[in-house]
Amino acid sequence: MGIEHVRWLAERTLDRPVLIAGFTGWNDAGDAASTAMTTMVEAWGADVLAEIDPEMFTDFATVRPQIRLDQERNRSIVWPTVGVWSASLPGTDVILMLGPEPALRWRLFSEQITGIAEHFGATMALSLGALLADVPHSRPVPLVGTASDPDLIDRFELQRSQYEGPTGIVGVLHDALHRAGLPTASLWAAVPGYASQVPSPKAAMALVDRACSMIGTPAPLSGLASGALEYDERVAALIGDDEDMVEYLARLEQMNDENEATEDDLTNAAPIDPDELMNEVEQFLRDQD
Known about the structure:
The chain is an alpha/beta fold. The protein is 37% helix and 22% strand. Helix 1 (32-43) crosses helix 5 (201-215). The longest helix has 18 residues, at 222-239.
């Protein structure tokens, strides 16, 4: 598998790592997926491993480079690259990948990631995403996990997606990894549509917790806990003076509570019908067309 667009920044030896990937952009509602990835990179002290050259894959008119000034006021340009890190954790080694969703040459881009996974002998790939849905901020974050590999579905109580329709880089990447023989799974957190502009450390916390339970390592949640509490307060203040929004929230809370299951759902926290949330995921994907 060609990895000619991967810039190696360090040499590492990893033992059967798990690849975890997230992308900024349309599948990062509330910045939840990118915040989850950043939290894991920083909390685990992950080492820089590589980056994917953005020149072939990025529309710089949409995702623009940034100018930075150092202490001597010298200018430099920071390009929007997809970064790759690695860490050795209790229970597993990981490769962490985060960056903007590419705008161009998705198949070639996916070949680069597949090549990295094959280079290190990865055993599983997991993607993190977040979508806007009709869910209340005042309840635990609904999470849905999907996979196509029967072993992963049984092992982690995931769902087999029946979705047909438009997809993003996550769908293309999963297809490429699957064709290369790597088991893949995807986690999606639901973020309230009425708070779409508010970053959600609460949803990021749910993604980190579930991802770490799947890969068998302690979840670094302490840095997100206070932000999750502030998130609830911020959203409550945002809608507090809007009677229509208060009424809408009350209806969402009632629907959520009525759907409370007798068994824990995929996150062991959020009482919502997984099939109903899966429908939200699929409609979200169609709406991106």
